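Much of what follows relies on a compact textual record of a protein's fold. With that in mind, consider the following protein and its fold in token form.
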Amino acid sequence: MSAKILDNIQVSIQNVHIIYVESHNDQGSFIFGLVFNSLSMQTDTQKQSFAMSLMARSRQDEVNKKINISNVGIYCQQLEEQQNLNDVGALTDAQSNFSLGLAHPRDDYLINPFCVTVSVLANNSGKRDGVPQYDMTAELTALVLSIDEIQLQQILNLCDHFTICALRTKYGRYRPPESFLSKRHKGWQIMWWQYAKDSIMADVKRRLKKTSWRFLGKRLEYRRKYVNLYRTKLELLQKGQVVRFSQYSMHFLIIL
């Protein structure tokens, strides 16, 4: 089924430009961008016709796809002070020159533009556990990575920002309200201490839960239920009776 879906997919995309803006008060604003001229996913007619012409059974159910991406590159560029971060349209227009090569972007590229071709072969006749076998081959032109000290610092800042966002997603429920953080109200030190303590204790309780006697007792109880239900199932099958899923579905869901 998956190979059939792959065989019917045809994709063609032109002039893609993805922009991410990172702003720091002390270091200015930077733009991280991903650009490529075209992306296409088509059936490899040459290999497909060759496979269909062969009489061997192993070649009858093959799907050949070719993915071409031209001039894909990643860059990091510092914004000028007069550019408005809130004007997305202006930023896009300004960066369009970058993607067209009109602003001498070579010094700003982290990965210089290159072309890549990926060949995907899905073989239905060689299924393993009901899943088709896939073979992928990638060919790309010269891959040049260049980075200066400022760009490296911005990449590290970006990674740090994503790490903080992940921590806020995890511990945001314990964070004090924003109204108390904007100004130092009375007792703000206690609120921050409570925030740190609740976050740490949440991790500690999560780890200790799996080693508690209550948790181990529940696991043993679920295992005993599973063994009893499986034994009952085998007995019913030996007697030629039909096992109704509704009788055991809830128990199996709890165990699994």
